[in-house]
Batch of 4 targets.
Target 1
Amino acid sequence: MALDLVALERALDALPQRFKGPGGVAGVVHEGRVIARRAWGFADLNARRALTAQTLLPICSITKQFTCALLLDQIGDPAVLDAQVRAFLPDFTDPLPTVRQLCDNQSGLRDYWALTVLHGAAPEGLFRREDAAPLIARMKTGHFPAGTAYSYCNCNYRILSDMIEAGTGRDLGDLYAERIFAPAGMATARLLPDTRVNADGVVGYEGNDEVGFLPAVNGIHWRGDAGISASLDDMLAWEAFIDATRDDGTGLYRRLTGPAKYGDGTPASYGYGLRHDVVAGVKTTGHGGALRGFRAHRLHAASERLSVVVMFNHEAAASAATAALMEAALGYQSPDAPVVPVGWDGIWLDEANGLLVRTVQDAGGVVLRYAPSPSRLTVAADGVARGGGVTLTRTGEGLTMLRPAENMVVRARALVPGGAAISGRFWCDEVQAEMVVESRDGALFAGFDGMLGQGPMERMYPVSEGLWVITTRRSMDAAAPGDWTVLALPDGGLQVGCWLARGLRYRPL
């Protein structure tokens, strides 16, 4: 189909002002050709080193689809490796996830990104390659039965990486280069697992125009979960390769985009490291990525033979940027006129998962805080708030949240603000780590001690009777994995959880 190139150029011109930060790159591929390619700003502000379309940037969690592609290429049927899962989870008492469930983020495992907080990691600390396996091996249960729901989990792809190397006897980086990067023409892409070593002297930045931009420090050793770096030109080559192999039923991307489903047969919208979504009125596959100081996102609309890639060396919403470019290229305008929300400010408790839900209204709609990142929803004429695949409905004194991408229906009850201070030391048998809560003249703080050390004290706030929230704004990786909800238990213990690591029980010491 014909694209609206004028609107696309306007949307590209707007990116540096709309998504403010040190630098970014963006590109569009249509019918196998690069039709737009932009690079602005600086890879290093202090060195005045320009950011270009050839600068290597971390693609963060976009790495996951390449790991799954290697699995299909080198191993074939994921079920062949199912018997090996036990070696990574020796003490797991729940039914083990299958390898396909690892690929589809249906394992129910708690994410080690979140667990580093509970293990006392310093925000700028070092998480070595050899730290991952023992942390994962401590898990005894999942936060839901494998195959019943979706939850983002880097552990899944860490396990897959080790399985691929063990099964092939080869280095993961060499396999990416030979089996994916070379055939796709990704000339400079490579596995760079140590995030302390930035490719091409690029610096990732935290901050904004209000507080300034400061170099971000990330000490996590990533693998097949978020370890690849690539230039914009590399990523556009990948999109062109997808188009060139679109009719090849044995092609890697065709195989990656096959249907996924939950254990009960319900279709799933995430599979093999790819999210299936509708953007600008068309079906898309893609993925985003976030490390401290970096954001990346890619989208592919097969029916339109259209792909969009955006990468920033700062923490603006790359997903919103790709959506804006695709909407502009396709001439898309939302058919729903939003209304000004009324009565949406509130705090709620998802009792089934033990998680706090917060909603804040403003002139543009409703901001939902529940999962790792806040979601912006708009309220339609029917009084329902929608956005980002989430639907919120007020039901009397409660709130119903539909999250079809996660195969979840959340029913939350309204909370009355209040609460009191607590203090004490608590131990989690599941995590094998300690939590310390201190009250100092009305100010509450919580700290975590575990296999990674003694973490910083974090602010802890009473929300309602028997419920508190810990606002961990700077964990080891990018924006921390959502606020931690702390619930008082009848036995004097606490239940602690966030979206990526739910339902952890701490007993008093």
Target 2
Amino acid sequence: MNFRIALTGIIAFLAPTLTVPAQQTLGLEDILLSVRKQYPPLLAAWLQQDIANGKVRKAEGAFDPILSAALMTRPANYYTGINGQVLLEQPLRNSGGSIYGGYRISSGFLADYDRKIRTADGGEGVLGIRLPLLRNRAFDDRRASFTQAQLDRELTKPAILRQYLNFLRASRISYFNWVAAGKRLAAAEQILKVAKDRDAGLGEQLKEGAIARIVKVDNRRLVVSRQIAVFKAKRSFEAASIALSLFHRDLKTGATIMPNRDQLPDGFPPLLLFDELTLVNDRGRAIFRRPEVRQIAILQAKGKVDQRLALNNLKPNLDLSVELNQALGGDLPKDIENTEITALLSFSVPIGQNEAKGRIEAVKAHLAQLVKEKEFARESIIADANDSFSALNAAYLSLGQTSLNVELSEELEAAENEKFTNGASDLLALQIREQATFDARILEVDALNSYFRALADYQAAVAKDAPTHLTPVNR
């Protein structure tokens, strides 16, 4: 499954952009679903979990059973015997020790006092246990590495969530930039059409001698200048379409799809106005939804693992080893019992212990640092929510003025056009009114785009899209 996801991302990177024929309106939810399922950077982010899973499994290898074999011979010594053994050792997860068992056999001429390598003729079965009683008893390097690997795996979740929220924010902004570019193009084409329609009428009036030739030339110049504006608006729309195609993908292959003009919605979605209570609720949930605090909490847990390991290293070594040897075969040497048990208790302590003490000091400072970072992360989340909420409300309030500006401009343009038709006004005055109406419509489009950009920022600031359990859609 992981290979399939990676392969899908590669195909999406290499595949050409698809241009689809006219189809149903392209909605924001279509883009968001495409990002969740087939956006290559998000698919790449999911693979962080697989990398972390591999590292957890690697750390778990410290507890794998170990099969060992050894053969010792002394061909040029006074004692010329041979000793061989096969042992299977299993590390213990909860005690820091290990148990082992196997078979040992010797032959030849070996010293009577060298009991460790000398066995009965049929060999002997071996069963033993090694246990730390102080240092490494409650915690050790193996358990620390395994716990750290598990925490590193947890760290991938807030990292992926951060990217997930950023990608959805970016896709929303790209979508509304595309819609706005389409609206600007439509406005540019509309004002061009007005000039073209008037140009035909002025041509008839010129033939009848009702207007001077310069009036027709002036309007023709206006047509040309507005055609240039349409060309620029088309280029802006194409750029917005190309940018959106990075987020708009085929849900099966992951290939980018170039949205076309026929897919533009009739307008922007309905506006939303959030009150102070909404902000308070969203801000409170954002502390838990946003990945920053969670990330620092996991780093604190990792620091406590280091602290626990450092405290363990301050303890002296007191280790107990017990081995049981069961002789096999009928004939036993006189100095070998049928069943023997050997116990060894060993003690050692490092002098000074600067390594462990230095680690404790470093970990303590690091944990104090993380406490401050966590406090600031909470404050930053609240500040982000407040700021984005303020920007959203400001954008909402400005929309009322921009809409009024369009209405007044259209009213003035209509009055000026009527005066021009009746011969009470000139073309220059009418051009000024038409341009004012066009500028007002563009301002309204920009204001709407700014509002939905602010909405995308607010949704990202309060982590509205954060799922309860962050798992890939296509897994």
Target 3
Amino acid sequence: MAEARWYVIHTYSGYENKVKVNIEMTIENRNLQDQILEVSVPTEDVIETKANGQKKKVTRKLYAGYVFVKMIMNDDTWYAVRNIRGVTGFVGPDGKAVPLSEEEEKKMGVGQQQSEPIYVTDVNEGDRVTVTGGAWIDTQGVVKAVNANKQTVTIIVDMFGRETPVEIGLNEIRVEK
């Protein structure tokens, strides 16, 4: 028996969750549980911070227009997935299904759970911010740099009469107007 691999399916934009549900129903109706093992619409939790300091947790899709399916590729599974309403085809040359490599799976986070939410803020260099938590609470400063990968900002604070750069987490600041 062949090994199950991850494949990428292209869908109409906005249909990712509907396609996922329809594939799961098809698996159940056609008893394909041993051939189509997992269906995934990768998402990430993001905490957005507005300029007024209000925080909101939002789940957003990582790959809009795509659904990932771990399956054993054969005529039955290909046909079952390809004919789901909203599916435009498999990703691969000339629409031929090509499985993801292990490196691509890791890089795209397929089949993995996100551990911490990502903080997104509309803070920019030059903005005046107030620190809302940690050792620097209630300190005001000006943003010198934003590091989205590390989820931090570097702010300039006045300490002992000198400008000093301090790195603060995005979840610990509020932008002042």
Target 4
Amino acid sequence: MTTRRQFLRNTGAFTATLTGGATLIAFAETQAKSDTGGRKTRWGLLIDVARCPDGCSTCVSACSEENGWGDTGNRLTDAQWIRKVMVTDPQSKLSRSLPVMCQHCAEPPCVDVCPTGASFKRADGIVLVDKHICIGCRYCMMACPYKARSFIHEPLQDQKSHAPRGKGTVESCTLCVHRVDLGRLPACVEACAAAGHDAMLFGDINDPESEISKRIAQHPVRKIRADLGTDPGVSYENL
């Protein structure tokens, strides 16, 4: 007998409704329709580190405002949707400031270890957490090599309807999936462009004709811990 949950997944959409009317819609395999020759969309980011000012936190502020999270001053428990970090080349001693968020891996370790299926990857490459079935075990946090996930310790108020959160669950960057599904850019990308930095480029990395794919093909890029075989959807230029 087919359950309601199985029916919704098989027909292409699964909706989880949380307290307060917050709803997360996660599309299954039908989300990433083939465009040409069977190619499926895979959304990704290219970040030009040379254009990312050391003291700028525009992308962080935009994400916080868009998705309704904020720092409490406790680095051990604060949300990790996106953060600015300083990295230093051990040989040249050159330091760079860059944003780090969920890398939306093609082979996400967080999905592999999740006991309930709450951590999942959409057909278009976006990795999400289904808050309706997340039990807060935090296995995904331990498995993530990018420290891109965080656990919500305190009760929350005034949540965004498009970004459901909740005490006792794990969260991370959603690539602003609610905007992407409407044909819009993630908030961090839009804010970076508005600030005049243009350090972040968003697009379909499986489309050889997309701007992001052309940039990646023409310029040397690096992925964080590419040696792990997770195939991140986030690439860094001039790192």
